[in-house]
Amino acid sequence: MKKSYIKIITRLFSIIASTIIIVSCASIGTPTGGPRDYTPPVFKKSNPAPNQTEVGNNKLTLEFDENIQLDNPSENVIISPPQKEMPKIKANLKRIDIELIDSLLPNTSYTIDFGSAIKDNNEGNILNGFSLAFSTGEKIDSLQISGTILNAIDLEPITGMTIGLHPADNDTAFTTLPFARVTRSDIYGKFTIKNLAEGKYKIYGVKDADRNYKFNAPTEDIAFLDEVIIPSATVTSHIDTIYSDTTRTIIDTVMTHSTTRFFPDSLVLFSFNEGFKPLYLSKHDRRDRERLLVTLSDATTKLMHITPVNFEAKQDWYIVERSSTNDTLTFWINDSIAYELDTIQVVADYLKTDSVLNIVAASDTLNFIYREGPMSKNNTNNEETTQQRRRRKAKTDTIEVESLELDESISGIIDIYSSPSIRFGAPLSKLDQSLISLKTLVDSTWTDVKEWEIEQDTLSPRRYKIKHKWDFEKKYMLTLDSACATSIYGLSNDSTSLDFKVKKSSEYSNLYIETIGVTSGAFAELLDNKDKPVRYATIKNGGAEFPYVKPGKYYVRLVIDTDNNKKFTTGNFGKRQQAEQVYYYPKLIELKPNWDVEQTWNVFETPITKQKPYELIKNKPKNDPNKPKEITEENEPIYSNRPSAKF
Question: pLDDT (tens digit, 9 = 90+) per residue, 288-336?
């Protein structure tokens, strides 16, 4: 009995000791998780298998080596041929399940391109460019083509553009049928259309907002090539050399591999928008009695005309102030019978878009209602207008003289090439130029400038430009005597003098670019670091001159001006017209004060896909492995501080 008790106690202590050891071993430290995983998921198998033939099941599964997630599969996963009904695609742990709602086409090769949609569940490592191909027939088509799509106006890579093919013998397919084969461009604008059969194709691109895989909305961005695409492939040898030392001088092993290269592999598409916007009357307003404001939705070639309905007016009862595209209009009423009315009713004749997207003539009856008061709803800025102040003062007992307002827009210092302007508060009925003088300071004496003129702006009847060939560093004074200007409302200006000075020549830079390959029929633009034009120059005799440029850092863009209208012209698919060709000088140019810069640019030397300076590209990843090295000194422009014969 005693021995038995001792055994029990001994076994009990043994169990307790073992438990303590196990717990201690299990609690030695907190796991750190190890180093970060940078490896994307690895594809293990699928049903159907890659490149499997005679597939009849519309349900597919793919398995990977770790748990995965799918990033927006409805947008990022592309199935070719395209599906009319959206397939069901979902991730489930290590598996992707796909159900194709459309019936499988017979004797057809299918490609499911995941792009950058697949990533691991923990670290988000992306499996880029993964795709699965299979065929419903006895063989699988294996040809492919690839290229890049760029925005025509600025060579920006286009992400997410739908790129597709149609048989070459169907010229209307792009606007009537879904693509026969399809893919989408990646972050760099690159695309590959896989599993093509032998044949002749035409290639197109569309920013497919309605996901119908064709160009059926005139507002969509598109691209096309007129040339016939014939896919082909060739087997080439690729040599890999393995070195046995870090200096790569001692060869260890040389291996030769056979690879297949597919053609064409460097297509370039240029995306453009035909510029169509529905044209309609978007807004009309009356903020004070004398002005009717009208806004159209887009530019128009025809200026709106208004005809009175509820009153009789003289023939020229208004003066129109407009934008350069005729879409923003101000009608200044110079007939007191009209502007004293609280409601002005007119018939507006203009152009607009009809239900079948044609531009047609239209007539609408518009009511312009004015409610008196400085804080009225008509006055959105809660400020009195000139005419409201005039009426308010006229109603008081105090005698006050209201004068014509003048916008003194001439700054204290002007550029040598500028045409400073003045703007009156209302259109003028009279301007007596004999009462306006321009003087310059010569030896401390203000002296009359002889050759100068004042010119009315063609868009704004209230604005007048001062035209003269200015001299560097000189001071000028523009004087307007009282009553030199009288508005259509009978108000005259007060006497005013405006002083200003021209910048020094040493405050400018001069730039000349020799454009090898382009001698004329084009123009160049100086661009800021936001890719926005700041100066313009016509290409003449193989070069572009930019005199008197503000010092700074610039880029240069060249446009082949085929229609000679001095601006970029977009394309038109109906006319099979491409957008005008654009090229970028591939380097930054720094312009310093009092320096002349000359540079030579072989316009066609750099491939078009590499021309746009990296710093100007907006569509790029934050940590881009393709980011180029900084420009070296040998790539810098030629500087000189000597006068240049070209200027």
Answer: 999 999 999 999 999 999 999 999 988 899 999 999 999 999 999 999 9
Neighbours of 646 (CB within 10 A): 13
User: Does residue 293 contact residue 174 with C-beta atoms inside 8 Å?
Assistant: no
Amino acid, single-letter form, for residue 358: N
CATH classification of the domain holding 440: 2.60.40.3710
What value, to the nearest 5°, has the Cα angle with vertex 126 and ends 121 and 130? 115
Q: Rounded distance, CA 332 to CA 323, Å?
A: 14
Element (H, E) at 280: none
DSSP bridge partners of 64: 43
Distance of CA 540 to the CA centre of its chain: 28
Res 484: pLDDT: 95
> Is residue 545 situated within a structural domain?
yes
Those residues whose C-beta lies under 8 Å from the C-beta of residue 224, and which sit 6 or more positions away, are 174, 202, 203, 204, 205, 269, 573
Single-letter code of the amino acid located at 547:
P
Q: Are residues 513 and 614 in the same domain?
A: yes
Question: How many Å apart are CA 394 and CA 400, to the nearest integer?
Answer: 8
Give the integer Cα–Cα distance in Å for 557 and 563: 18
Amino acid code (one letter) for 94:
K
Domain that holds residue 320: 281-394
Q: Are 387 and 466 contained in the same domain? A: no
Positive or negative: CA dihedral 286, 287, 292, 298? negative
pLDDT above 80: residue 206: yes
Quote the pTM value.
Answer: 0.81
Q: Total domain count for the chain?
A: 4
